[in-house]
Design brief:
7 copies of one chain form a homoheptamer.
Chain A (H helix, E strand, L loop, with lengths): L2 E3 L3 E6 L2 H7 L1 E2 L8 E9 L3 E2 L5 E2 L8 E5 L4 E5 L4 E6 L3 E5 L1
Antiparallel strand pairs in A: 2-4, 2-9, 4-7, 5-6, 7-10, 8-9
Chain lengths: 96, 96, 96, 96, 96, 96, 96
């Protein structure tokens, strides 16, 4: 089963704590909003601007990214895979 | 009886739990907003941008899509068919 | 007496329950916002976009349409005719 | 004394109940927002769009119009004439 | 001392009750927002539109205008002159 | 140490009561929002409009200006100099 | 590990009190919002304007900047480095 995001939406797989340690992101326990790490699974065509131009997303499949913790909508397939659908603007940075 | 959506609106038929299992989407029971699955029945001409351009929708008839659970307006025909009218932006992804 | 709507406004006649049955729309009694059925009596020239373009309405006189139940402003002529003035964006779909 | 409205503003004279009956508008006593009838006395040059274009108003002096009851700002001259200054978008329709 | 308003701001001198009677505006004691009368002292260059165009104000020095009573910021010079700085959009009409 | 404001931001030095008297602005004790007087120390490049044009600020270094009393962010250097960073739109007028 | 901000986002390292004294910014203890000092570590490609133009950021790597104290999202690497991801508009000024 494939999930193709629409517009400026991005499908990601949230990386669990172990992955997080491997790629080196540690999220400090503070009062600030904390981002989470995820891997890009699929990208939409991009946001439609008022000029009619479609702005292709900056991120691409397999990018590892940081996003705001409370962003997005959770979906999961019958195979038990869980994903999150974000808007591109919810993604803060690409990490490598 | 035909229902032709206007502008960026999309007419969909919500898929019931059985369909949902067949296409493999399982919606986890979490605090996050949960999307629902639907099939596209008819599409509007698209959103009118400030430039005057009409942006044709990305989705087409027969696409299966995910949309935000509390989106849209319910209508049903005298034949007992129930539909939902969404805005294209309420649709998160096409599934296949 | 004639009523000519301005801009993106649309003059409609709300169809009563009998008409509603004939055209086949049945509105289920649910928690969702319910649309109503109406016939277009007159249309404005359309919305003025920021580019200066006037966007002609998609609907035309005699179209039967669905609109959000709490939309619009009621007017009635001395002949006892009651109408509603809607904005085009309050109209969800054309039915036929 | 003359009052020249600015931008998209329109100067109107509200028509009293008698005029209202003559032109045939009867405002039903319902829960919906009720429009009032008025005659256009003077119009501004029109709204300035972001493109810099000035959009001339659709209404002209002597038009009879319907507007939202709680719209506008009341002014009256020393001769005892009372007027209302509306924005063009507060005007719903021209009647004839 | 000179005060040059910036952008779409306008410097006005509020006219007192006596001036108001001479120019013939009488403000009725109603529940509606009441405008006040003022004379234009200086005008800004105008509003900068998103297109980059600067839209020169419709009003000019010495115009007598009506403006919303609670609009603007009061300033006064050491000579005891009191002024108000308005945005052009707060000005409803020019009177003559 | 130099502070260079970004975008449409403006660095000002608030003028104390004595300066205020010399330049002749007296702020009446009323219920209205009161502006304060300041001198421009540095200006940003200007606001970026949606068209991509950068709109250079109307004010320049050494201008004396009036601004809304509760606007801006205070900073001060180790030499004990205190400044305020405003947005250009917070500045009401240039005085001379 | 590298963190590449997206769009108009900027990655900064907040400078501690000692650095702050060296560069000469002293933040007074007042009721006003206080900015903090930081060094730019990485910049996004810039904001996408409605015209489709990408507006490159005004700041560059190694710039020392002032930003609003409660802005941004904290992240830290496993090496123990703590960073903040800001939007360019949260940055008030470059200091030197």
């Amino acid at each position: 089963m494939a999930i193709k995001p629409l517009g400026d939406r991005i499908l990601v797989k949230v990386l669990d704590a172990k992955d997080k340690t491997e790629s080196g992101i540690y999220l400090p326990d503070s009062a600030k909003e904390k981002p989470q790490e995820a891997e890009i699974i699929a990208v939409g065509q991009g946001k439609v601007l008022e000029s009619g131009k479609v702005q292709a997303p900056e991120v691409k499949v397999k990018d590892k990214v940081l996003f705001g913790k409370y962003s997005g909508t959770a979906v999961s397939t019958k195979e038990g895979e869980e994903y999150l659908i974000l808007r591109e603007d919810d993604i803060l940075a690409v990490i490598s």
